[in-house]
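hey so i finally got around to running the thing on that chain from the lab meeting. sorry it took forever, my laptop kept dying and i had to restart like 3 times. anyway pasting the input first so we r on the same page abt which one it is
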Amino acid sequence: MAELLIRKKRIISNLNKLKEYSPNNIYVLKANAYGLGIENIVSILKEQNEDFFAVSNIEEAMRVRKIDSECRVLILGDVDKKDIDLVKTYNFEPTLFSQKQMEKYRGLRVHVSFNTGLNRLGFDEYVDYPNILSVYSHISDAFNKKRVMDQVNRFDEICKNYTNVKKHLFSTEAMLLYPNKYDYCRIGMGLYGFNEGFLKASVLKVKVLQKRSIKKGEYIFYGSKNIAKKDMDIAILELGYKDINIQNACMDMMYMPITEDIGDYVYIDIDSEKQLASLSPYIKRTLI
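ok and heres what got predicted. didnt touch it at all, straight out
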């Protein structure tokens, strides 16, 4: 079985670099902390005295609370009516983004999300609610300056209605490109090394099952698409598409061209946060 090695020192290095841009941050742990494991990342950040996290749902919030009984936990998605008592018991902070949520969230402290151009979740205009912890929105394309400025201006107009409320708009990419004038930034990809100038925080350690020499014109694995264009050597690895979204794979194995002798294991870099987030829960996560 493959193993995801999580480099603690690299995460701390990324954290310190990010805090040079913004000292006050909300650390995003959705999708099992982008695949690295909520428990692993919370334990690292807790050691660094960070105490404000964001998750997708109540299940992820409960995992955070089991590790840290006092930290703040923002829930970015919806909370079902049946789980409202958990919000109250464990002091979670849900997001209000729709009129449909008003009744079930009555009496709760909430963060209010606004749509400023992403056209996903959020209110389009001012909403009156008695107990607002923060208002926030999402930048849709940090590399398009005009669109960013349009969203900043739209968000600033909304914020005029919430003078004594915390505000946050930028994620990692926007924070690195533009000065942040709001109370928090929401940090995700940068912490895990998926922004330029940051250290990749994880690598897959994969067992080599067999090495094989393939002749030009021979087929590899199922179907007739993978055909050797030349004589080549390959390694058969214990990693398949059930484990991660990866090429040259069947369900529980993949092949990798090799040009030199290799040992019993290979180390595979993960190309993107999407690939990391797709990592199977069956893959062991190990802090190193």
